[in-house]
Structures are given as structure tokens and as C-alpha cells.
Design a protein that fits this description.
This protein is mainly alpha-helical. The protein has a single domain, classed as Globin-like. Helix content is about 65%, strand content about 0%. It is built from 8 helices and no strands. Helix 1 crosses helix 6, helix 2 crosses helix 6 and helix 5 crosses helix 6.
Length: about 150
């Protein structure tokens, strides 16, 4: 029996919960922190990669996570031209400031590992390569990349 009455909602809730469980393995058992970290990291990546790549990447995300990814996105604005790991970290922290201390590198690594686990390896490789080298260095290699 469907929990929500709509299979599409049940499916996205199930997939989102799997993603959150993976993020929580690194960040701890707080689901709220995992959800906020997931969104903060994905939106920070979104705002740095080229528009077409961001749209394609976002389309591959589970429906509920996709909503967070696209939240407050203004595609007419060009991605920020930042190359610094410090700017990457500060963007993540700015979204997590009100939920307690979260190490932005741990948040990013946990989200990147989750993306590696659930998304198509070639898509992950394209996104990873579009990021500045210091950020790529904290994104673990996806060993199943072709």
C-alpha cells in the first residue's frame, strides 16, 4: 500500500531517505543536518558549474532533492567565478550557520560520496571536472568511472 497515495511521491521519499542515510554516515545521525548539508553542497556546486551542466545534473537527482537543488536558482545569473576552496566552504557554512557546528569539508565529502554512489559515473565526472581543482580534491574519485 502506498504511504502517500502517489507512487511518484513514495519513490522520491524512498530515494531521498537513502541519500540522507548515506550523508548521515559521515555527519552523524541528525536528519535535519544531513538534509541541510545535502542542499547546501548541491546548490554551491550548482552555482559554480556551467548552466547547461547544472540543468542536466539537476535533472538526474531524485525529485525531492531536485527541488532543493533548484531552490532559489536564478539561471539568468552567471555562475560565480570562484576558484578558492575557502569560498566554497563559506558558501556551505552560510547555509548551515543556524544548525550548529558543521565542518564544511565533511559535509561536502559526504554529499560527494553520496552523489558518487547514486548517480551515473560519467555525469559525476563532468560535474567534478567543472569545479576548481581545490574543490575537486575533496571530491573522492568515483572508482566506477568509465
Amino acid at each position: 500500500m502506498s504511504a502517500t497515495g502517489l507512487e511518484v511521491f513514495d519513490t522520491t521519499l524512498q530515494k531521498t531517505n537513502l541519500w540522507l542515510e548515506d550523508v548521515m554516515e559521515e555527519l552523524g545521525p541528525d536528519r535535519k543536518t544531513a538534509w541541510r548539508a545535502l542542499g547546501a553542497v548541491l546548490r554551491t556546486v550548482r552555482d559554480r558549474i556551467p548552466l547547461e551542466l547544472a540543468a542536466h545534473f539537476g535533472a538526474q537527482l531524485p525529485l525531492l532533492i531536485r527541488g532543493s537543488f533548484y531552490d532559489q536558482w536564478r539561471p539568468s545569473e552567471q555562475p560565480e567565478d570562484w576558484k578558492s576552496l575557502d569560498v566554497f566552504r563559506s558558501r556551505i557554512l552560510s547555509e548551515l550557520h543556524d544548525i550548529g557546528p558543521v565542518n564544511p569539508d565533511d559535509a561536502a565529502r559526504s554529499v560527494f560520496q553520496t552523489v558518487n554512489h547514486y548517480m551515473e559515473p560519467n555525469q559525476v565526472a563532468h560535474v567534478r571536472e567543472a569545479l576548481p581543482e581545490p574543490v575537486r580534491n575533496i571530491w573522492p574519485d568515483n572508482k566506477s568511472e568509465l
